[in-house]
Amino acid sequence: MHRLCVDGRGVWSSSGIRLKNMKRRLRFLFALLLVPLAGCGAAAPGAADLGSDPITQISVINALMIGRYDGVATISELLRHGDFGVGTLDHLDGELIVLDGTAYQVGGNGVVAVVGVGRSTPFATVVRFHADGELPCPVVASLSELDASLSEALPQKNEFAAIRVDARLASITLRSVHRQEPPYKPLGEVARSQSVWTHDKLEGTLLGIRCPAWVGGLNVPGCHWHFLSKDHKIGGHVLDCSIEKGRVQYDLRRDWLIKLENAPDYHKADLGQDLSRDLKRVESARGGGNEAEPREPKSTTPR
Ligand SMILES: [Zn+2]
Questions:
Q1: How far is the CA of 116 from the centre of ligand 1 (A)?
Q2: 204, 106: one domain
Q3: Per-residue model confidence as pLDDT tens digits over 75-92
Q4: 224: CA distance to ligand 1 center in Å?
Q5: With a cut of 70, which residues of the chain have pLDDT below it?
Q6: What percent of the chain has pLDDT over 70?
Q7: DSSP label at 140?
Q8: In terms of CB atoms within 10 Å, which of 10, 160, 173, 174 comes out highest?
Q9: What angle do CA 140, 250, 164 make, to 5 degrees?
Q10: How far apart are CA 34 and CA 213, in angstroms?
Q11: What is the pLDDT at residue 21?
């Protein structure tokens, strides 16, 4: 028999599914009425209900790292799996932001646009965002302070989390990458020509996808942040930020869906390499793709 129980972290079914909010609870209860009890009575406590509402990613980060920039899923397919997330577009054509069900592209020139029909993504991670809860917004002077504060407030380090921070920022440093043409170069090389901007005093949404440390090679370990301003004119991959105030909502996930490529040469791709050092540099370098030689970010409005 199915049972519902409540503990400090939420409402659970006897099969181990945590029910995140009232809407889901009601949906689950409705599902119980439809499922024959004989079939599910055998489920062991703690058994996973695979695919219930997973965090979904298109391809794996190592594929992007070695320069596989052709689309693996269309944007409309991606939006069917989530309304909140981060990624990039085919041809590595800028940064991708999925917020409130709309996909935005931040081009290499910094211009923000709604992604057109027919575009696709070689790498993205999305969820259907339903907040599990809220946290006090930390007042921080840097992105590393934000990550440290959230890591303390959300100790579920082996689960995935989507984190939405609607904030007023004292400053934010963003980057985007330029569209590539085949034959593609590896991301570490391409990122050396990224554009970097710093903006002061603005409001907007930080979109964070936090992956466990053990996802190395498959996704970005730790927090991967993108940003979209309230007026949808400024955005990008976040390199640094200083937050004055805001609202933090989080959504924890224990189901994980990965869509792999279906390209004819996919079997030739060496995806098992340890590219973690290169990835760290690509994710956090402010310029030149090399942390040892930091370049001062330009203070320009990317328009
Ligand atoms: Zn990014």
A1: 19
A2: yes
A3: 999 999 999 999 999 999
A4: 6
A5: 1-51, 287-303
A6: 78
A7: B
A8: 174
A9: 60
A10: 38
A11: 52
Quote the ligand 1 centre to 9 CA distance (angstroms): 30
**What are the strands of the beta sheet with 102-106, ordered from one edge?**
112-114, 102-106, 95-99, 84-88, 123-127, 55-58, 256-259
Which residue type sits at 228? L
Q: What pLDDT score was predicted for residue 35?
A: 38
For the chain, the average pLDDT equals 85
Neighbour-count burial for 36-60, b at 16+ CB within 10 Å, e otherwise = eeeebeeeeeeeebeebbbbbbbbb
Using the mean position of ligand 1's atoms as its centre, give its distance from the Cα of residue 221 in Å: 12
Q: pTM for the complete prediction?
A: 0.81
**Residue 216 CA to ligand 1 centre (angstroms):** 15
Q: Give residue 92's domain range.
A: 55-284
Same domain, 65 and 203: yes
Q: Where are the beta strands (DSSP E) in 230-296?
A: 235-253, 256-259
Distance from Cα 247 to the centre of ligand 1, integer Å: 21
* Separation of alpha carbons 122 and 59, rounded Å: 7
How far apart are alpha carbons 15 and 115 in whole angstroms?
39
- What are 97's two structure tokens? 């932001």
pLDDT digits (tens, 9 = 90+) for 263-293: 999 999 999 999 999 999 999 988 644 333 3
Distance 226 CA to ligand 1 centre (A): 6
| Strands laid side by side in the 18-19 sheet | 4-7, 10-13, 18-19
Q: Is residue 301 part of a domain?
A: no
- DSSP 8-state class, residue 207: E
92 and 210 housed in the same domain: yes
Cα angle value 188/180/69 (rounded, 5°): 70
CATH of the domain at 172: 3.30.1330.80
